[in-house]
Amino acid sequence: MKRLIILSALILTVTSCQEQAKIGFVDNGKVINDYQAKIDIEEKYKVKEEAYKRKTDSVGQAYNLDLQAMQVKLKNASARKQQEESQQFSQKWQIVQQQLQFEQQQMQQAFNVEIDSAIIKMNDFVKDYGKKNGFTYILGSNQAGSVLYGDDTNDLTQVITDALNEAYKKE
After folding, report:
1. Which mean pLDDT values do the consecutive 10-residue runs of the chain (171 residues) have?
2. CA distance 85 to 80
3. How far is CA 93 from CA 66, 87, 98, 128, in A?
4. Diameter of the chain by CA atoms?
5. For a Cys-Cys bond, which of 21, 47, 76, 94 suits 136, CB 3.0-4.6 Å?
6. Who's near 24: CB < 8 A, 6+ residues apart?
7. Would the CA dihedral through 12, 14, 19, 20 be positive or negative?
8. What is the pLDDT of residue 148?
């Protein structure tokens, strides 16, 4: 009986001495959407997208003018001549259209690379924050439901967002 009491006391002492896991969570979507680096990237590409749109609008106007000029020129031409000129016209504008599509794809790829880089920086920052502040786990909550409930005292979303943006300002 004495051994049972000593064993129980020993188990109680060992379990009470173990450190509690420090767990927090962040709303991934809110952190990334409020991350100034992401906001700056989106603004940069919004300007590029507007410039691209102006370019495509002017190319579209040039196409329409060229088409009208060709139609006037070929109004009284033979069917063969009309077909030859139409083919040349189509080939010319197909090349322009392909160049515009390539430019748009390049812009989209560059945007994706920069956004991915910002997300990686955010994830690395959260990892470092967790290590520096003694967290065992920092979970991410999102629409998929990785954290279905979390006590607000463990919600690090705003703290992480503020610290992340402060670190970004220093870069």
Report:
1. 51 54 89 96 97 95 92 87 90 94 97 96 94 91 72 88 94 84
2. 9
3. 10, 10, 9, 53
4. 117
5. 21
6. 130, 135, 137, 138, 139, 154, 155, 156
7. negative
8. 65
